[in-house]
Amino acid sequence: MDQLSWDEEKLFSRLAAGATALSVNNRLARWLATRYDEQMKAAGMTAWTTPSLMPVSVWLENSLAVLGEDWRLLNDRQAVQLWERIINAESANSLLQLSTTAKMAYDAGQLAEEYQLDFTAQQLNEDHLTWLRWRKNYTQSLQNGNWYDRSTAWQRVLAAISAGQMPLPNELLLIGFDQLSPHLLRLSEVGAAAGCRVQAMPPRCAPQGQLWRVPCVDTDDEVRTAARWTRQLLDDGATNIGIVVPNLQSSRTQIERIFRAELDPPSLLTPAHDPHGFNLSLGRPLAEQGVIAAALEILQLERDLPIENISRLLRSPYFSRGHELTSRAQLDGNLRGLRRARLSFAAVVRLAQKNQGRWRYSHAPELARRGKELLDFITTRERHLPGDWINPLLHALDQAGWPGSRGFDSSEYQALSAWRDTLLPSLAALDIVSEPLDRHGVVTLLRRLAQETLFQPEGSSAAVQVLGLLEVAGLYFDHLWVMGMTDSALPEAARPNPFLPVALQRHFHLPHADPEQERIFARQIMQRLFAAAPQVILSHPQREGALELRPSPLIAALPEHTPQRAASHDPATQFFTKQPQFDLFLDAQGAVLPAGQRTFGGTAILKDQALCPFRAYARHRLYTHDFERPEIGLDALQRGSLVHACLEEVWRQLGDSASLQAMSDAAIDTLVVAAVAAGVQNELARMPEKPGARLLEVECRRLEKLIGRWLREVERQRPEFQVVAVEQMQTEQVGALMFQVKIDRIDRLADGRKFIIDYKTGQVRVADLIGDRLLEPQLPIYALNISPHELAGIAFGILRSDDLRFVGIAAHSNLVPGVSGVEKSRIAADEGLGSWMELTAAWRIRLEALAADFCSGGAAVAPVSAAQACRYCDLSGFCRIDEQGGGNFEEAL
Q: Quick check: 594 pLDDT over 50?
């Protein structure tokens, strides 16, 4: 076959004379067509014949159409689906990565046909033999269906040319190929025999000017350097700039972020829209477009869902016609408040209908109505071919109110068009090679198709083109930057197909078969890149994290260069570089609480006020808080509630210490088992969503063991007492604040005085009951309505598997094991409190001071300490305490 040196004028003159040009890819065909039109206009032409210029894949399809057999051609997706069906039937659903296996098996089949591989003399392992068995079934399926795949289509077209069944032009040009495949080589042979002159015009390979190597600190520095270099060229008026990235698929997000910041900073505010000034050739998967992602979320609804999926759906403007957004947002918060990692969709629908208590703000009747209709779709057991599923899928989306009722921007409109005109027809096209699927199977298939379908919104042409390594074939630029040129990028490591014998692949020089083939291919690519612009810059990062990187050996000998770069236009970089001076304004005073206005939060109001006034104001006046974090199983709060409920049952039955002392260990165990069963049932009745039976069984065994130990090791060691109240509701007033509180337990000691107990499953300190800040105000608040002469003490009952004890303070020592009297407390002495009367008086003063500060709107960011107030606080992004300086905040955490 003749080879022509790259010459656009010669190419265009031959196209004008009637030659047909077959390009290596779509991009080169479009680029050459645009250049041809520009040349015609420059020549003063007002009309001209469209040149016969197309990718080789399109020519193959057109050739089958000329033969009247284009209907027989399976596209790659259909062929892979056929492989999946064959593999799945033989493996009995045992493969974990069926689609990946099918794709590799299909690629192996295409290579075997194209290179006409003979396996008879090869040493074959089990994988090879399995693949040959699959291939036999695949070939039989093609014959039974009267279908072609890509390789057999080539065989048919080449045979038709040889038999004179298909005319060829006088001249056929192969444009932009680094290497000619066996199919193209055979095309040149049969074409020449048929009187067609077939010539190759490979990309220009001779360097056109300067070649520079630019080492960079890391990938971030490399991308930013390239972006600022590009910005400088644009400022100088450049209009044809190329950026080539070997691993564009994996680094797309980083490149888009930095190029947006440097070339089009305003676009950072609209990340969903395409930036101006540069174009990324590689589109994003259609499945990642918001409106399509929402459709797939809806169709993939299951009876049981992760809370994150439910949250995305509730907040989506594409769901439920976009109505009830405020109610749905509140419902999202309420559902997260359940702290469940997963919820049934039926439960979501049920809770959307609730209109009492905190659920009244999340009442969403339209969402509930649409959810009920979707439940039938979710539970269907029907099986259909993929195409027959389209109407049920669309009906389910309509029931869900997708895609919403608001107007769409250009990108959303194009995504919907791609859904309608590309994705759904692709799904229907799989009917001929697919078996009937259930709902889960067809939605999984649809999602995979959407993930494989790259979506690139149409936009105006840009001066800067960001391309993958193989997309540059035949393209030329005024300026070119090639990044990521490490020794692992080029040459690449060999990647032989696992279903073909490696020795056979190396013998026939199959692509990616061995390191030598990769080196040859890499040199060809580099020669093409060297010739793609008058000035070519090749950069490489020198490290990735702690890993040192080396430049590709293909560029290591190039001279180093420091390119001219514009000043950074990244807003974040400018902010930190220029360090603008801000006015300091300390706003430590909120609005005064109007007299008589109810507040919510109970005694936690004063606890938060003690920990940090801003925290109390934000939580209980502004009602600001983070979403609850879902946990697997029961969370700490639910487990604490279960402990309270079970101990309530225990003491309702026991009543006093004498009854406990009279019981044997076996009798205590029997009592505890019954109390746990009753307490758990009472608590379950208050839970919107019930835990699983197995989880409850495990929790009951834990509670039985914990409470049994508590009774034997702690309560049975106490002096005589009588339980006079459990879970007692009462009203307490502290200053202008009124609280409805529930006291866990009040005991009457042998001397007639009362002792207040509050159960805790967390950790507390005695200092928090005595200190100036009063970080645990709950028990002191309970004590306000009891005369100090009638109150013997207060204590937390700590129930943890590793810590069973009382923590508190009393009028005298030895009243309750482990609880010291005020007169022996070092902490009380440090606070200047020498008696029980002084301590109870100090409680009232400090509680009223906290209440007064809260009511007056005190909102200073003044945590008692970072460790106590800030470590688990969810408001640090709101109060911005880490910006106040001091240097030890993060260290304290």
A: yes
Q: Are 650 and 644 in contact (CB under 8 A)?
A: no
Helix (H, G, I), strand (E, B) or coil at 359: helix
For the cut 60, the answer to whether the pLDDT of residue 459 exceeds it is no
| Cα 495 from Cα 612, distance rounded (Å) | 60
Confidence class for position 887, pLDDT limits 50, 70, 90: very low
Alpha-helical regions (H) of 685-825: 693-713, 767-770, 778-783
CA pseudo-torsion sign 592, 596, 601, 607: positive
Q: C-alpha angle with apex 731: 730 to 737, nearest 5 degrees?
A: 155
From the number of C-beta atoms within 10 Å of its C-beta (0-12, 13-18, 19+), residue 688 rates as middle
β-strand partners of 820: 809
Cis peptide before 275 (omega within 30 of 0): no
pLDDT score for 577: 76
DSSP assignment string, 701-751: HHHHHHHHHHHHHTGGGS-SEEEEEEEEEEEEEETTEEEEEEEEEEEEETT
What pTM did the predictor assign? 0.79
Can you list the alpha helix ranges (DSSP code H) found in 165-247? 182-193, 219-235
Bridge partner residues of 579 (DSSP)? none
| Contact of 743 with 602, CB cutoff 8 Å | no
Can you say whether the dihedral through the CA atoms of 783, 788, 792, 793 is positive or negative? positive
Q: Which two tokens stand for residue 90?
A: 């033989």
**Which residue in this structure is represented by tokens 């209009």?**
239
Contacts of 70 (CB under 8 A, 6+ apart): 61, 64
| pLDDT, tens digit (0-9, with 9 covering 90-100), for 127-173 | 999 999 999 999 999 999 999 999 999 999 999 999 999 989 999 99
**pLDDT tens digits for 630-659?**
777 788 888 999 999 999 999 999 999 999
CB atoms within 10 A of CB 585: 5
Q: How far apart are CA 225 and CA 220, in angstroms?
A: 8
Instruction: Determine the pLDDT at residue 190.
Output: 94
Is the Cβ–Cβ distance between 406 and 329 less than 8 Å?
A: no
Query: What tokens were used for 275?
Result: 């930036």
Q: What is the mean pLDDT of the chain?
A: 89
